[in-house]
Write a structure and sequence with these properties.
Helices cover 70% and strands 1% of the residues. With 598 residues, the protein is mostly helical. The strands form two sheets. Strands 1-4 form a two-stranded antiparallel ribbon. Strands 2-3 form a two-stranded antiparallel ribbon. Helix 6 crosses helix 7, helix 19 runs antiparallel to helix 20 and helix 24 crosses helix 28.
C-alpha cells in the first residue's frame, strides 16, 4: 500500500503537468520543467502502478470480488493501450479503491506499518541518490546520461516540487510563538497531546537510545561529510579547471591581496578596520576586520594562492559549525541525542550550503561566534559565574568584528530573550541577570558608535537602521509571498527550499517550552525575525534566513519523533534514515551544482 501511494502520487504529478524550477549549473530555469515519469515512460508507470495495486487488491479482498476488478482493469488497459492519458486516469483510481478494500477487509490495519514501508521506500530513493552523487567524482560521466541517473533525476524533481510548500512551512516556524503564548490554545493543546509521553508503548525499549549508542559511527559519518561537502565542488572531476564557485571569493581575494601589499602592520590593521570590505566592492566600510585579518594571517602561514585559501576556508567553517552545534545542544540543552543530530544536520544547514554558494565568509564566521555567545550566555544565566559572562562578552565582540550585520542579529536576539525572561519568570534574580547581560552588551554598542563618529567606519546600528528604512515597509506586506517564493525558488539558487529541514524545524519549535531557558533563547532568535519576514524585501529576508538556527530546531524535531511513544520503532528507524539521507543528498547536490554554465 505504501509503494502504491508513492508511485500514484508521482504519476499524478506528471498527469497534472506540475511545473518546477530547477537550478542546474547555478542557473535557475524560469521557463519551468514538467514533472517527468518516474520510470522513463508513461506506459511503464501505469504498468507498475496497476501491478502493485491489483496485487494488493487480490491479497486484501475475497477472490469473488477481486478477480472481476482485476479483469476489468486489465481489459481496459489493453483496449486503450495507446492512450496513455486514459490508462493513467484509470490507474489513478486504483489507490482509493485499494484503500477502501483495506479498511473494509482489514479493519486492524496499522498506520505504523504503512508509514514504515512508505518512509523506507522514499529512503531507498534518497540513499541511492546520495551514493550515486558520492561515487560520481571517482567515475565521472555526463549527468543523467544513462539509466543510473534515473532515480537521481526523480529525487531532484521531488525536491523542487516540495519547494512550493517550503515558504508556508517557514512562516509557521516563525509564527509558532503564537501557539506558545496561547493565542490559539486549542492547537497548543493538540500539539501537547501529540507529543505526550503518557501514551501506549509500542515497544518496551525506546529505539532512540540504541540508535544513538553507536557514537563512533555517528561521529565518523559527521567527520566524513564535514570534509566532503566543502571539498566536493573543488574535486578534480567536478571542477577540472579549479574555477571559483562562490560569489564573494573574488572580493575576499582582492581584499587579502590589498593587505598583502601593505608596508607595515599598522597599515594592515588600518585597512582591515577602516579601509577595506563592505558589501560587494564598496570600500571604506570596515565591517568585517577580524575575518580579513584571519585570512591574512593564515595566508602568511600557508604558502598557497589566495583564491585556493579562500576556497578551502569553508572546510574550517563547516567543521566549526558542526562542533559549535554539538556543544550548543550538548552542554546547554543537555540533550546528547539532539546534539549528535544537530552536528550532522549542520552539514546541510543554510549556514553551510548557502555559505558555499555565496561565499559568505564573514557572515558564516560571525554566525559561529553567535552560537558561541549563546552557549556562554546560557551557561552564565544558569550558573552566574563571572567567567561565562566574560566569555559571552568576548564572543559578542568577535561576532561584531567578524561581521557587523550578524552581530546586530545576535544582539537583538539576546535583547528579545531578556525581555521574554522578565515577562515569564518575574523574579528578582531574573531582573538582576537581565540587567547584567544588558550592561555587558552596552560596550559593543558604544564601540559601534565610536567606529562611526570618530573613525567614520561602518556602524552596525546605523547601517541596519538605514537598511531597515529602505527594505522594510508596509508596501512589502503585499509582496510577502512573491518575496518568499523568489527567495525559495530563484535567489541563491533556490537552496533555501529545503522542505524536510523546515518541516522538522516546525515539529522542533512546537515541542519547545517558553519556560525552559534554552528553548526561550532559540525561539527568541526565531521570533525576532517575524516582522522582517512579513514587511521586508527579498534581500533582507535572505540574510535573515541565513542566520536563523533552523537546523537546531530540526534536530529537536527528529529527536522528539524518535522519543515519541506513539510511533513504532521500525517507523522511527526508517524515518531517521530517510531524513538523514535526504539532507545529506541536498547538501552534496547543492554544492556540486555551483559551476556557472548555460
Amino acid at each position: 500500500m505504501a509503494l502504491l501511494s508513492f508511485t500514484t502520487i508521482l504519476r499524478l504529478l506528471n498527469v497534472l503537468g506540475i511545473v518546477y524550477y530547477p537550478t542546474i549549473n547555478r542557473v535557475t530555469y524560469l521557463d519551468g520543467h514538467l514533472f517527468d515519469t518516474f520510470t522513463g515512460s508513461a506506459s511503464m508507470d501505469n504498468f507498475l502502478i496497476q501491478g502493485v495495486a491489483l496485487a494488493s487488491i487480490f491479497m486484501l479482498s475475497p477472490k469473488k470480488i477481486s478477480l472481476p476488478i482485476i479483469g476489468f482493469y486489465i481489459t481496459f488497459s489493453a483496449a486503450f493501450l495507446s492512450n496513455d492519458l486514459a490508462v493513467s486516469i484509470v490507474s489513478l483510481t486504483l489507490l482509493p479503491l485499494a484503500v477502501t478494500f483495506l479498511f473494509t477487509f482489514k479493519p486492524k490495519f496499522s498506520i505504523n506499518s504503512y508509514l514504515a514501508v512508505l518512509f523506507l521506500t522514499i529512503a531507498v530513493v534518497q540513499v541511492y541518490t546520495l551514493a550515486r552523487l558520492m561515487v560520481y567524482p571517482a567515475f565521472p560521466s555526463s549527468y543523467f546520461s544513462d539509466w543510473s541517473w534515473q532515480i537521481v533525476e526523480l529525487e531532484r524533481q521531488i525536491f523542487y516540487v516540495t519547494a512550493f510548500v517550503a515558504p508556508p512551512v517557514l512562516l509557521m516556524v516563525v509564527f509558532a510563538f503564537l501557539l506558545k503564548i496561547g493565542v490559539i490554545p486549542s492547537l497548543t493543546d493538540a500539539s501537547r497531546r501529540l507529543w505526550s509521553k503518557k501514551t501506549q508503548d509500542y515497544n518496551a525499549s525506546n529505539i532512540s537510545d540504541k540508535v544513538f549508542s553507536y557514537k563512533r559511527l555517528w561521529f565518523g559519518v559527521i567527520a566524513a561529510f564535514v570534509i566532503l561537502v566543502p571539498l566536493y565542488p573543488y574535486l578534480p572531476s567536478i571542477n577540472p579547471d579549479q574555477s571559483i564557485r562562490s560569489t564573494d571569493v573574488p572580493f575576499y581575494s582582492d581584499w587579502v591581496e590589498s593587505l598583502e601589499q601593505s608596508d607595515s602592520a599598522q597599515e594592515v590593521i588600518y585597512k582591515s578596520f577602516l579601509g577595506l570590505s563592505g558589501d560587494q566592492l564598496s570600500v571604506g566600510r570596515g565591517d568585517r576586520p577580524l575575518t580579513l585579518l584571519l585570512l591574512f594571517v593564515i595566508h602568511k602561514m600557508i604558502n598557497i594562492q589566495i583564491e585556493h585559501l579562500i576556497q578551502l576556508f569553508p572546510i574550517l567553517l563547516t567543521t566549526m559549525t558542526a562542533l559549535v552545534s554539538y556543544i550548543f545542544l550538548r552542554h546547554t540543552a543537555n540533550n546528547k541525542k539532539a546534539a549528535i543530530v544537530a552536528a550532522l544536520f549542520s552539514v546541510a544547514s543554510y549556514h553551510v550550503v548557502i555559505g558555499m554558494y555565496t561565499g559568505f565568509i564573514a557572515n558564516w564566521l560571525a554566525v559561529i561566534f553567535n552560537y558561541g555567545a549563546f552557549i556562554f550566555l546560557l551557561k552564565a544565566w544558569n550558573s552566574e559565574r563571572k567567567l561565562y559572562y566574560l566569555l559571552f562578552v568576548a564572543m559578542t565582540f568577535l561576532s561584531m568584528l567578524a561581521h557587523l550585520h550578524t552581530w546586530i542579529y545576535l544582539s537583538v536576539s539576546v535583547l528579545v530573550f531578556l525581555g521574554l525572561s522578565l515577562v515569564i519568570e518575574r523574579n528578582r534574580a531574573t531582573i538582576k541577570k537581565a540587567i547584567v547581560v544588558a550592561l555587558l552588551l552596552l560596550p559593543t554598542f558604544l564601540l559601534d558608535v565610536v567606529f562611526l563618529s570618530v573613525f567614520n567606519a561602518s556602524s552596525g546600528v546605523e547601517t541596519n537602521l538605514s537598511r531597515a528604512t529602505s527594505a522594510i515597509s508596509f508596501e512589502n506586506f503585499g509582496l510577502r509571498w512573491l518575496s518568499l517564493y523568489y527567495n525559495f525558488q530563484i535567489w541563491f539558487g533556490g537552496f533555501y527550499a529545503n522542505f524536510v529541514l523546515l518541516a522538522l524545524a516546525l515539529i522542533g519549535i512546537l515541542s519547545m517550552n517558553w519556560k525552559k531557558t534554552f528553548d526561550r533563547l532559540v525561539m527568541s532568535a526565531i521570533f525576532m525575525t517575524s516582522l522582517i519576514i512579513i514587511f521586508g524585501d527579498y534581500g533582507i529576508q535572505a540574510r535573515i534566513f541565513y542566520m536563523m538556527p533552523i537546523h537546531i530546531l530540526s534536530a529537536f524535531g527528529i529527536v522528539r519523533i524518535l522519543e515519541s511513544r506513539r510511533i513504532r520503532n521500525d517507523v522511527k528507524v526508517s524515518l531517521l534514515v530517510l531524513v538523514s539521507a535526504c539532507l545529506l543528498t541536498y547538501a552534496i547536490r547543492s554544492v556540486g551544482n555551483l559551476e556557472f554554465k548555460l
